[in-house]
Amino acid sequence: MLCGRSRCVRTVGTRVGPHNSTTGKALACEPTSHFSGHPLIFAELAAFFSSFSSRNSDPGSDFSSEFKARAFDIDGFGDSSNGYDRARKMGSENFGDLSLLGSRKNDCDNDQSKKFGIFDDIEGSDGGEEESSGDEDDDGGGGGGDGDLTVLDSSNRVHEKGENFGRVDGDEEEFRHPLVREVCRLIEFRSGWSPKLEGELKNLLRSLKPRQVCAVLKSQSDERVALKFFYWADRQWRYKHHPVVYYAMLEVLSKTKLCQGAKRVLRLMARRGIERSPEAFGCVMVSYSRAGKLRHALRVLTLMQKAGVELNVSMCNTAIHVLVMGNKLEKALRVLERMQLVGITPDVVTYNCLIKGYCDVHRVQDALELIDEMPKRGCAPDKVSYYTVMGFLCKENRVEEVRGLMEKMIKDSGLLPDQVTYNNLVHVLSKHGYGDEALEFLREAEERGLRFDKVGYSAIVHSFCKDSRIDKAKEIVNEMFSKGCTPDVVTYTAVLDGYCRLGKVDQAKKMLQHMYKHGCRPNTVSYTALLNGLCRSQNSLEAREMMKVSEEEWWTPNAITYSVVMHGFRREGKLVEACDIVREMVNKGFFPNPVEINLLIQSLCREGKITEAKRFMEECLSKGCAINVVNFTTVIHGYCQKDDLDAALSLLDDMYLSNKHPDTVTYTTVIHALGKNGRIQEATELMKKMLGKGLDPTPVTYRTVIHWYCQMGKVDELLQLLEKMFLRQNCKTAYNQVIEKLCSFGNLEEADKLLGKVLRTASRVDAKTCHSLMGGYLRNGDPLSAYKVACRMFNRNLIPDLKLCEKVTKRLMLDGNSKEADNLMLRFVERGCISNQHQEHLQS
Question: Closest Cα partner for 76 from 238, 180, 193?
Fold first, then answer.
C-alpha cells in the first residue's frame, strides 16, 4: 500500500484536505461469448432495451458551480470557464481519474458492440435539450440512444491496434524546458500579437516535441486559451499535431465545462485518421457532465459505438460516475445490473462510485451493505471504500461510528489503518470545524507510532482559528516546536488570520514579525489576511500604505489583496480611494468581477454621484472588465432615483451599443420611473418594446404597471396592455391587483366592472379582492353595493368575511334596507356559518 503524505492548500480560509492513493486492483473483464450461446438472454436484453425507447425524458441534472471571471479576452481567445478540481480517486490505482485516462482499450477479449445497449434505458429517460444534428453527429450518425436492436447488432470492429495514448503524463523537465516557457510567454502577450510575434511562435512551434506541446497546453491557467492555441497550431503549415497532443487537449478539457470544444477535438481526431480509444470518449463524457448535460454525456457512448470502439469497464465506470455526480443514483445502480447481465465484470472502482453515491444522498446504511456484498460478488473492498463512508460520517461528527467502521475494516477486510487513514480523518474533521475530534485522532495515530507532519497539524490549527479558539491553536503550534515539527507559512498564516478575525490586529502584526524571526517569510496570503484585518478595523489607509511598500517586503499583491482594500475603502465611504484601487488593480492585470464593481457603483449612486458611477463603469468596460447588465441597471436606477429620466433612457440605448442587452429588471426600473413622473405613454411604448424583445414580465413588472395606470385612471389602456403581457407571461392575480388598486384609489366603478373576471376562479385570493371592494363601498357610504358583492360571492360558492358582512348588515338596517340585511344573514345561516340565535341578535 502506498502511504502518501497529505498536502495542504496554501491559502487562508481554504480547508485542508488529503490526497491519498490505494492499491485496489481492477478485475479483468470476462468473455461475452454467451450471447451467441444463449439466444434467450439476447432476446430478453432486446426487449428490455426497447421498452425504454419510448420513455419521456426528464430534466437533466444541475451542477452547482460558481463562475470565476478571467482577465483575458483577447484575439478571439474568448471568455473563460471556471476550472474544476480533479475528481477524487475512488478506487484502484489504474482507475483513470474517472475521466478514464489510464485504462486500456483491450480490457475485454471479445467483441463488445452489444454492450452499448446497457445504457439505453438510462439515456432514453434523461432530459435536456437536443443538440443540433450537425453537432451531435460525430461520424456521420445521429444522436442515437434509441435503445433498439441497431445498437446491439451493429458491427463493432476495433481499429487496428496502435500506440496507446490514453495516459498523458506530465514531465516536470518538459514544463521547465526553455522552449515551453518561451511559448507560454508569447501566448501571454496575445493581446498585442503582431506578425513578428506570431512568426516567432510559428518557428518555436515547429521546434517543439509532442510532449512539450502537451506541456504548453497544460500550463495555461485558462483552458479556453489552451484550446485556442491548439486550434491555431493545427492550422499552421508544415506542422501536424502528434496523437498524444489530442489526448492532452482532451484531458485538459475534461476538467472543464467546455464540452463542445472537447467534442470538436474528438471529431478532429476522426478527420485526421487518429485512433480514438475509450479514454478519449471518456474525456468528452466527463466534460458534458460538468456542463450539466447528463443526457448528452451518455450519448457519447452511442458515438463511441458508431466509431467502432470497444466498451470496457472503465467507460462503464465513467458513466456510473457521471450519473452519481448528476444525482441519478438509481440509474447508476441500473447500469451496474446491465453490466453484470452482458458480461462486464464490475471492479472496485465501480462499487466505490456507488458507495459515494449512497453517501451523497445520506444513505450510509446502504453504502455499508454494499461494502458487505462486495466480497460475495468477487471484488473485495479497498481502503477508499471505507474512506468514503468515513468521510461522510466525519462531516456529521459521528466519531463513534467512524471508530466502529475502522474496526470493521480491520476485521472483515484485513486492512490496517495507516498514515493515510488518519490523515483523511484529521483533515475531514478539521475541514468541517471539529478540531477537538481531529486532535483526538492525531493523538491516537501518534500512540500507534505514526508521525504527523506540519500539514496535519496546520489543518487542526486552522480549524481552531476559524472557531476563534486562538489560544488552543497557539498550544498546537507550541507542541509542534516541542516535537521538532517546525510550523510553516500556512500554520503561521492561520494563526495570523485568527487574530484578525477576533479584531486583534496588533497581535496579528506581532505574529508577522514572529514569522520573520523564525525564518519563515510571510507570503501574499499572509499579508492579505493582515490587510483584511486592518480594513475591517477601519484602518484601510494603513492597509493601503502596506501595499505600497510590498516590494520592500518581498511580496506581491494579488487580485484578492486589491479587492480586500477596495472593499475596506468602500465600507468607510472613501469611494474616491476605492475607485483608485480598482484602477491600479486593472493596470496590474487583475480584474474585479461584476459583483465587486456593482457594490462600488451602488455606493456611488447612494451618495448621489451618478455621473461618477457611470464614468467609472465605462472606464472599467474600456479596460476589459466583465461589466454585465446588472451594472448598467444599477446606474440606470441611480438616474431614475434622481428623476433624470432622459439620462436613464439614453443609457438604456447605450447598452445595446455595448452589446449588453437589458433584461426585464432594467426595463421595469425605467417603466416605474416613467410612471412615477406621469409619462405614462412613454412607459407604454417601453413596455411594448420589452415584450417585442421577447422578455417575460415578472410579478414586479405587473405590480409596477398596474399601480401607475390605476393611479392615472387609464383602466382601458391598462387592460389592453395586460392582454399583451399575458401572451408572454401570464399572471393569475393581475385582475385582482387591478381591482385592489382601483379600490385604494377610490375608483370603485371601474373595479366593479372587473369583478366578473376575478370571480371566474373563486379562490381565496378572489375572496380577498371582493373584501377590498366591499370595504371601499362601505367607506363611500354605499352598503347596498357591498351587499351585492357579497351576494355574488355566495353565488360563486365563496363565503364572505362574517365580521365585514355584519358591518354591511348594520349599515343596511340604518339605511332602511332591512330586507337585504335579513337576506345576507340568512345566507350565512344556510351555509351553517352562524346560528338562528346569532341572526336574531344581529337583527335586534
Answer: 193
pLDDT tens for each residue of 272-293: 999 999 889 999 999 999 999 9
362 within some domain: yes
Q: Are 208 and 240 in contact (CB under 8 A)?
A: no
pLDDT tier, 320 (very low <50, low <70, confident <90, very high otherwise): very high
Instruction: Kindly tell me if the per-residue pLDDT of 122 is higher than 60.
Output: no
Query: Considering its fold, how many domains does the chain have in total?
Result: 3
pTM exceeding 0.85: no
Does residue 13 form part of some domain? Answer: no
701 vs 199, more confident = 701
* Rounded Cα gap, residues 359 and 390, in angstroms: 10
> Using CA atoms, how far apart are residues 163 and 158, in angstroms rounded to an integer?
14
Check if the beta carbon of residue 66 is closer than 8 Å to that of residue 80. no
Q: Which three cell numbers stand for residue 795?
A: 353565488
CATH code at position 720: 1.25.40.10
CA-CA distances (angstroms) from residue 255 to 69, 258, 327, 375? Answer: 17, 9, 19, 33
Cell digits for 228?
Answer: 485556442
Domain assignment of residue 821, given as a range = 750-844
pLDDT in tens, 222-270: 899 999 999 999 999 889 999 999 999 999 999 999 999 999 999 999 9
- Among 354, 270, 540, 589, smallest CA distance to 548 is for 540
Collapse the DSSP code of 220 into the 3-class scheme (helix H, G, I; strand E, B; otherwise coil) and give the result.
Answer: coil
- C-alpha span between 516 and 736 (Å, rounded): 70
Co-location of 779 and 669 in the same domain:
no
Question: C-alpha grid cell for residue 752?
Answer: 366593479
Report the SS3 class of residue 132.
coil
Instruction: Judge if 187 and 232 occupy the same domain.
Output: yes
Q: Tell me the chain's radius of gyration from C-alpha atoms.
A: 34
Please indicate, yes or no, whether residues 692 and 803 belong to a single structural domain of this protein.
no
- Say whether 69 sits in a helix, a strand or coil: coil
Chosen domain end from 671, 701, 731:
731
| Contact assessment for residue 428 and residue 395, using Cβ atoms and an 8 Å cutoff | yes
For 139-155, the pLDDT digits (tens) are 333 333 333 222 223 33
Residues 814 and 675 in one domain: no
> What does the pLDDT look like over 723-769, one tens digit per residue?
999 998 888 889 999 999 999 998 898 888 888 888 877 778 888 99
Strand partners, 126: 58
Query: Residue 253: which CATH number?
Result: 1.25.40
